[in-house]
Amino acid sequence: MTASYRNASFSETIMDLNIWSALLLAIFTIATLIMTGLAIELVEFLTQWRFLPGTITLISLIGLFLASGTRDPYHYHPAEKLYIGAIAVFSVVFSAFDPFYDVVTGFYDPLGGIIVFGLMTIAAAVLMR
After folding, report:
1. CB contact set of 105 (below 8 Å; sequence gap of 6+)
2. Are 96 and 54 in contact (CB under 8 A)?
3. What separation in angstroms does the CA of 41 have from each of 34, 48, 79, 101?
């Protein structure tokens, strides 16, 4: 029996991605990093080069936009555009400026991180629709 493969572009392949499979893959990857003890090294590496998580965040937001069903910016409300732009600027400022990073992470120690995580997750959800 032969398998049939179609020549799909990168964006078509991303559009065919099963969200549950992607979520389970992310959970599996994180759990494996923790289980093997590599998570500590990864976190230490990313804290040494703090611009990397910010860059990865911006690339991920672009990828989410390109993979969404609404790749036309006109499908977004102006408030959504403003919010996503603010999150992108926040990501750059958070990664680039130590005083801003210290204020956000020092805001009631775990609460600041939880708020930032929540705001960034909302931006990702807006882009994914």
Report:
1. 112, 113
2. yes
3. 10, 11, 39, 21
Whether 116 and 94 have beta carbons less than 8 Å apart is answered as yes
The first and second tokens of residue 38, run together, are 């590599």
Decide if 90 contacts 118 (C-beta within 8 A): no
Alpha carbons 91 and 49: distance in angstroms, whole number: 14
Predicted model pTM: 0.68
- Cβ contacts of residue 55 below 8 Å, gap of 6+? 95
Angle (CA) 96 86 111, round 5°: 70
In angstroms, the CA 68 to CA 61 distance is 11
Look at residue 19 and tell me whether its pLDDT is greater than 60: yes
pLDDT in tens, 49-102: 878 888 888 988 888 888 777 777 888 889 999 999 999 999 888 888 888 878
